[in-house]
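so my prof wants the structure for this chain in the tokens format not the other one, which i didnt know existed until like an hour ago. anyway here's the sequence
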Amino acid sequence: MTGEPFLRSGFRAMGTDVTLLTSVGAHDDALARVREAFETEEQRFSRFREDSELSRVNRAAGSWCRISAGFEALLRFAIGQARTTAGRFDPTLLAAVRSAGYDRDFADVSRGPAGPSGPPVPGGGWRAIRLEPGRVRIPDGTGIDLGGVAKGWTVDLAAAAALEAGAAWALVNAGGDLRIAGEAPALDVAIEDPADRSAEALRVRLAAGGLATSSIRVRAWGEGRHHLIDPATGAPADDAVIQASVWAATCAEAETLATWALLTGRSALDRVAGAIVTSDGDLVTSFPTTEVAA
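here's what i got, hopefully its the right format
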């Protein structure tokens, strides 16, 4: 990054480490607003909290259910991205990810091997969701899981909140998925090596927008068992691509496109600025300015 002074703070939320970088002024107020954004959206979208709005909506499957403006906004976005990616990003894979073994908080899943708890459940339920102002009806037997996109959405909200608190610029990073907002200097952003998470695979210089990474190595609990479901089969995606990173105008959009890129493969880089790591160790990138880590 440039030599401009900045401050850094961090905390835990949504099962990951959240970091805030800002210009020196208003950092404390910005940090408070960022924490508030994560607390609010985690309560709204967590599938592991029985009292979350998401859990309430899922329990009401088959019936109309009242929803908040924040829930409606993200669900509309998610359905739109499902259409844009021809269903490769799918917000209705709750049954599939549970069947694959991710049926409780990942901290619990990772303590011991977890195998499939049921047959694969293909996606596509998003096409039958009915969404009206202030209410939604999801099909009976369908469950919504907004985990990754909710995190990206929250990163975007938190970055905006930091600016509202008086920061001239802000970078909010949640487990490697980030958003840069305001008049930021050029920042060198590292993308981790999926084979060695303490090392860098690539470094990208950014001054705006969002960057997100999807990997089959991060939330994994056994051979071929991970949280990235292929909606076409309902089973964990194969390992042809083990990691995909994508830049977009927002972190939420980057999140959905990173999932799409991982399932699409190398040809995805014809359409987006990103980087793909294949199972044989190849690093392929379409970022205009990159530095491969030594």
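also thought this was worth mentioning. The helical segments are 27-45, 53-59, 69-84, 94-99, 106-109, 147-164, 251-264.
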